[in-house]
Amino acid sequence: MKVLVTGGAGYIGSTVAQQLLDAGHTVTVFDNLSSGHRAAVPPGAAFVRGETLDRAALDEVLVDAGFDAILHFAAFIEAGESMREPGRFFRNNVTGSLQLIDAAVAHGVGRFVFSSTAGVYASKDSPLLETDPVGPASVYGATKYMVEQALEWYQRIHGLRVAVLRYFNAAGAAGTRGEAHRPETHLVPLVLQVALGKRREIAIFGDDYPTPDGTCVRDYIHIEDLATAHVLALGGLAEQPFMRFNLGNGAGYSVREVIESARRVTGHPIPAVVHPRRAGDPAILIASSDRIQAELGWHPQHPELDRIIESAWRWHLAHPDGYGDGKQ
Ligand code: UDP
Q: Which among 30, 65, 35, 63 has a CA at the least distance from the CA of 49?
């Protein structure tokens, strides 16, 4: 298939773009490089720099190009930031997505794979099912759910075939691609920056949550397993017009357990200090991925947390300056 990957210079988008190429698809990456890295775009993909908020730029890419599918990763992703700057998130994540979806329909693109998040759910102390009620704790989660709802209507009205993938916590590295944001806010890379000597300590955002050790529990999924699900979902749209899947390993780890794992993997003591809670963090998010396992035969190949962190650690050791573009 001929596919457009928005956000294909980012951590998840670039890894999926590579897997799509490996599976024989033709890939164009569309990214504004606000947080992505030009060097992360696979060499086999075409690259267009542009904004999803810019309808003219989208039209230029899509007109007469014959794209079969769009995989839409481009978005602001930090829940904590979304609680300080909601307008930026609504504009970029909702308005930008609606521009893209409209452009997809206008140019006859038949399939749409959307990056959603576990952040659409409220905290639950057992694995979340796709049928569980939503209840976003952050503006970020709310923006993703708003786009999901729009996509349901576009499916019904325009026949756009849609796969919504709700990611739990992506982590780890895939070959030359790893997680490097600027500023970095994610737990795994931050913990590893302490082990690299780039930070003195890791802040634990709250230890008074209703969890076994008081810190937030998340379900960490290896980036390669996450990427594989996209390739399967793209193919699965031939059979099903609308799909919604959780993507995680079904196992929850607390912030303290992640730090412990990084201590084992790196051999570094990784000092940790408790800070107040960060706004927009649900206590517990664990995926049931039974649905995608049953319907598309997806099976995570790298479910162990230590191995996930080990792959991230190897990447950080090999790329101490990230992509070398200052964005890390
Ligand atoms: N977290 C933390 N210290 C940090 C960064 C994150 O304690 O420096 C916590 C955060 O509050 C959340 C968990 O680690 O409970 C995972 O956060 P991350 O930002 O990696 O992913 P999210 O779950 O927000 O998508």
A: 30
